[in-house]
Specification:
Blueprint (H helix, E strand, L loop, with lengths): L9 H21 L2 H7 L7 H10 L3 H19 L3 H30 L10 H9 L15 H23 L2 H13 L5 E2 L3 E2 L4 H13 L1 H9 L4 H22 L8 H19 L4 H12 L1 H14 L1 H4 L5 H25 L2 H13 L2
Helix pairs in contact: 1-3, 1-4, 1-12, 1-13, 1-14, 3-11, 4-7, 4-9, 4-12, 5-7, 5-14, 5-17, 7-9, 8-9, 11-12, 14-16
Length: about 350
């Protein structure tokens, strides 16, 4: 289909990724009551409040799912090489950024003698490299690597989902609710990420937002008097309240309200960065962090595992958080320089150009 030009550009996507990756750092650092109590001085911010905020921050995964579908839709509409070439292009993009960090993870585990189950057997190494460990119910290398498997599933089914959204348009949301209701506990499952199908609503939302140019409508609404203040309040409240309701009050979820609430919390997060984060200096910082978000996503578990004593040395929530984020960003910058100097990026670009050529 012919899509109108979206105002939610790559820069806006990077800002949303910045928010998502900062939330996932917060989630992984402070969501465990026992671990947090040992590492953090909770006199200023009560432990229960800190844990609740950290647990609720998990809606960042729905932000990643939404952004993945949105970005793939925009790219797919411009891609002229056909579905097969698009599949290879997306797989190359996925593997090219995760394989170096996977290799580092393996080396560190070997050096510090910190094996994870049976991952050193050749078959498990292959499954982790290919990102299909969840598909065959074998242990993944780390808590965040399940998302590689999830992204690979999305790449495989994306042309079909794109076509369904193109044909049925807004009706797909009702179809998504029906599918969630019937198949929420079926399909590929991750011990960390849960069943992949729970992110379907966010994926469908990302595709429709790109196809229909909904961000343009939101931007137009924002130009009205008092609209920015209104959207600031609404998006902030949605990010705080919806995950809390989902995690605290909803027990029996027959209508799959939990997944819908997290999707709308993710939309609120993206809307917040799109509408409210428009100061020049903030744009620069968030765009910079967003460019490193993929690396930070995979690197920060290593930072928490091997540099935990440094991260939590002060026992201060803010200092510990900033230290973890800073070290993760610094390591990402170093990694990018290594990949650039060794010719790795040039090689990947050359292969990608060969795949994408007509």
């Amino acid at each position: 289909m012919e899509m109108q030009e979206n105002m939610f550009t790559k820069t806006e996507t990077l800002k949303a990724k910045c928010l998502a990756v900062l939330l996932i750092l917060f989630h992984h650092m402070f969501s465990s009551p026992e671990g947090t109590a040992e590492k953090i001085n909770t006199h200023i911010l009560p432990l229960r409040v800190l844990n609740t905020l950290a647990i609720d921050a998990r809606f960042c995964v729905w932000i990643f799912a939404f952004l993945s579908a949105y970005g793939m839709t925009v790219a797919y509409n411009k891609f002229e090489g056909g579905n097969n070439r698009y599949f290879l292009h997306r797989c190359l993009t996925l593997y090219s950024f995760c394989l170096p960090i996977l290799a580092i993870h393996y080396v560190l585990n070997i050096i510090f003698k910190n094996p994870v189950g049976m991952i050193y057997k050749p078959i498990y190494i292959i499954f982790n490299i290919l990102g299909i460990s969840d598909w065959v119910s074998y242990p993944a290398l780390g808590d965040v690597y399940w998302y590689i498997s999830f992204t690979l599933v999305l790449i495989i089914f994306f042309p079909f989902l794109y076509r369904v959204c193109d044909i049925y348009q807004y009706i797909v949301f009702f179809m998504g609710i029906i599918i969630l209701h019937g198949y929420i506990n079926l399909g590929i499952h991750s011990d960390v990420g849960g069943y992949y199908v729970q992110y379907l609503f966010a994926i469908l939302m990302g595709i429709i937002f790109a196809q229909k140019g909904i961000w343009n409508k939101i931007y137009t609404f924002n130009q009205r008097k008092y609209s920015k203040k209104f959207l600031f309040v609404v998006t902030t409240l949605c990010m705080l309240v919806l995950p809390y309701i989902r995690n605290t009050y909803i027990q029996s979820d027959v209508l799959q309200v939990k997944q819908i609430l997290m999707t709308f919390a993710a939309l609120a997060g993206c809307s917040f960065t799109f509408i409210c984060c428009r100061w020049k200096w903030l744009n620069i910082v968030m765009t910079f962090v967003g460019k490193h978000s993929a690396n930070i996503f995979l690197i920060h578990p290593l930072v928490l595992r091997y540099l935990g004593n440094v991260i939590y040395y002060t026992k201060n929530v803010l200092v510990s958080y900033v230290t973890c984020a800073g070290i993760s960003i610094l390591l990402s910058m170093v990694l990018e320089q290594i990949l650039e100097k060794t010719g790795y990026n040039a090689l990947i670009k050359k292969i990608d150009n060969y795949i994408c050529k007509k």
